[in-house]
Design brief:
Elements (H helix, E strand, L loop, with lengths): L12 E7 L7 H12 L3 E7 L2 H11 L5 E6 L4 H7 L2 E2 L1 H6 L4 E4 L5 E4 L2 H10 L9 E5 L3 H12 L4 E5 L3 H14 L4 E5 L9 E4 L23 E4 L8 H8 L3 E3 L1 H15 L5
Parallel strand pairs: 1-2, 1-3, 4-6, 7-8, 7-10, 8-9, 10-11, 11-12
Antiparallel strand pairs: 3-5, 5-6
Helix pairs in contact: 5-6, 5-9, 6-7
């Protein structure tokens, strides 16, 4: 049952989201709704700052004692990583930060939870371990975060397919450095038949457009197919996977899990 938000007072904890622009952002509404559900006396607001003034803004924000943490969006994620006092494993490997917790001593602790959302959505259906083989299509920003999060979660083998081979090679190197136990290979394409999990981390399928990122007829009958695209809810890839009776993870599930992870990381609890 949803609870009403406590009146904003001097005791209300403040959270912000650094971004430029901010008009399109949905995260404040989603997190404020979650705060209401949890009955937390806190509010989450968008903070519009340009890249030119980001470092100076952060320096000033450090003096605000009632801000408990921040989200970080485009274009500030790389700079935020450089300005934090400590980076946790995903952020350290990816070189970007999308969430900052302000500890009781005032230190800024940075992490990136974009990929963690996908890992949590997958593990809600299937365990990940050293025997798990994953095919990841896409080596952009979201693909990088997912690859690192999968490796840190204990996946044993990760194949990274990307149209530009150099980007796949660079990401495979990043994964091996972050999690040496994970075998990471790069290529322009892989046969999906030998993988337990297939993930689309490209924009293919957005608004139902574009070719399928993998040949679904070749995917193993026991595989789980996951998607980062959220519109439509059932992309052509997920529709094809469902038709074959395969398990699926929708993009919205990844987002829901990421929001929960961000809230927990920032201490948005009663």
């Amino acid at each position: 049952m949803q609870q009403s938000h406590p009146p904003i007072s001097g005791r209300t904890r403040l959270y912000g989201l650094f971004a430029d622009p901010v008009g399109h952002l949905q995260t404040p509404a989603v997190l404020n709704s979650l705060l209401d559900q949890r009955g937390v006396d806190a509010v989450f607001v968008a903070l519009h700052v340009t890249a030119e003034h980001f470092a100076a803004t952060v320096a000033g924000m450090r003096h605000l004692r009632n801000f408990a943490g921040y989200g970080v969006s485009i274009p500030h994620k790389p700079m935020a990583a450089r300005l934090c006092d400590e980076l946790l494993p995903n952020a350290r490997a990816c070189g970007v930060v999308n969430v900052i917790r302000v500890d009781s001593d005032g230190r800024w602790i940075g992490e990136t939870l974009d990929g963690v959302g996908m890992v949590k959505a997958i593990t809600a259906q299937r365990a990940l371990n050293a025997n798990t083989r994953v095919l990841l299509v896409g080596a952009g920003g979201v693909g990088r975060a997912i690859a690192v999060a999968l490796a840190l979660a204990g996946v044993g083998y990760l194949a990274i397919a990307n149209r530009t081979r150099a980007k796949a090679d660079d990401l495979a190197h990043t994964v091996r450095r972050a999690a040496p136990a994970c075998v990471a290979e790069a290529g322009s394409a892989f046969d999906p038949a030998t993988f337990d999990i297939v993930i689309n981390a490209t924009s293919l399928g957005l608004n139902g457009q574009g070719p399928l990122p993998v040949e679904v007829s070749r995917v193993s009958g026991t595989a789980l197919v996951a998607e980062v695209v959220m519109v439509p809810k059932l992309t052509p890839l997920l529709q094809a996977a469902q038709t074959r009776g395969l398990g699926i993870v929708r993009g919205r599930e990844m987002l829901t899990q990421q929001v929960e992870a961000v809230a927990d990381f920032l201490g948005m609890i009663v």
